[in-house]
Amino acid sequence: MKLKEQKLLDQLREMSDKHIGQLKADIKSGEMSVQMYQQQAVLIDQALQSECDMDVYEMYQGCAADDVEAVGDADVKEIGRITKVTFRQDTDKLSKSLDDLQLGEIDVMYESVLDLKATPVLQDTTDVRVAGDSNRPDPSDVTVMVVNDTDTVLVTDYYNQSVKSFYTRNNQTRHSKLSLGGKPWSLTKLTHNQVAVTVLNIKQIVTVEVNPDLVLLSTITTSKQYCGITSLTPSTLAASSRSPPSVDILDMTGNVLRSVSPRHYGSKILQYPNFLCTTRTGNILVSDGGTECVLCLTPEGDVVFTYYSPIGDTALMSPRGITSTSTGDILVTDYSPNRVIHLTESGQFVRNILTQQDGINQPQGVCVEGHGHVYVCLISGVIKVFTCKH
For a Cys staple, 153 with which of 161, 166, 207, 263, CB 3.0–4.6 Å? Predict the structure, then answer.
């Protein structure tokens, strides 16, 4: 009886060990499967995030073949790695389809030529004052953009500490106002629907999106108080400082890449560089109200020309806004004599293109746009638009 009992216990132990071993093996296999499924889930996420068609297609093929379950199965036929997927187009079918396909029509619009020899004609006057203004408007700089096929006028309002846009939609004149918490002075185009604006008293440059309603994009804190600003490249700006007087080349985070303070016969040219503009050749035009001159600089700081005229009708007394046309001509406002002066691309005086007789009284910012129009900011709180074309 004892011997039989021991024999049965040995058989039971042997059977238990066998089944326990099998269960442990099953558990281990299950854990490995879970781990492999987790790894494949990570790979699938990576393939989807990579947006690579080859990666996505290869992962799909692996899942379809049930590669995870087939790991270690020698009977499963291996599938080669995809190296290339080729699309062969049926040229005949494509040609026949295109013959009947109507995609639309192409309209070609040519830029109107700004004829600076023509007599300017007043076309429109825009009052910068809008609802909610607590102070009289003081438009200091202006630019014009075409956003969603809508001509949009942008202006900095110094006293009301805001940037404003004016446009017409559905035959209705509309506006947008973006308060900045500081006094904006100058602005420049960055892209077809973005501008950068200097804010004087809080040492900031802000970027604004134009839809044509205005949306604040970013605020760049600067080490200096900048007034004039112009875009040089998609990644660099030029901005002018009054203290100390200089023109700085900045990156889009506000870091100063280069500071320029040119001299003329041993004396500093810059005293109050109020406005800047980029020429068609990539140089920088500076309007300086202290030395009463217009200066042209290369981005490296070399002086291309200076326009001084201390006496006579051609003398600059208080230069402010400055702009360059597509032909290279230069327009600069002269605040005290109430006029807009036309200079050649090399800085030679041509004529007073607009005067007090044209309604120009204490002008500041000026710009031109593709329809042959000249926009001038006046201290009275309006923007006058003149047609000057063939």
Answer: 166
Measure Cα distances from 144 to 59, 268, 318 in Å: 51, 33, 24
Q: Which of 143, 157, 227 is nearest to 193 (CA)?
A: 143
Distance of CA 362 to the CA centre of its chain: 31
Angle between helices 2-50 and 53-64 (to 10 degrees): 150
Which 3 state secondary structure label does DSSP give 329? coil
Count Cβ atoms within 10 A of the Cβ of residue 131 and give its class: 0-12 exposed, 13-18 middle, 19 or more buried: exposed
Euclidean distance between CA atoms 261 and 249, whole angstroms: 12
pTM, two decimals, is 0.71
Helix (H) or strand (E) holding 139: strand 139-147
| CA angle in degrees (0–180, nearest 5) for 182-187-191 | 125
CB 145, CB 189: distance < 8 Å: yes
Quote the CA–CA distance of 369 and 33 in Å, as a whole number.
67
Radius of gyration of the chain (CA): 35
Distance in angstroms (rounded) separating the CA atoms of residues 283 and 286 = 10
Rounded CA-CA distance 213/373 in Å is 22
Do 85 and 54 form a contact (C-beta atoms < 8 A)?
A: yes
H-helix segments, the chain: 2-50, 53-64, 91-99
Q: What angle do CA 377, 378, 381 make, to 5 degrees?
A: 100
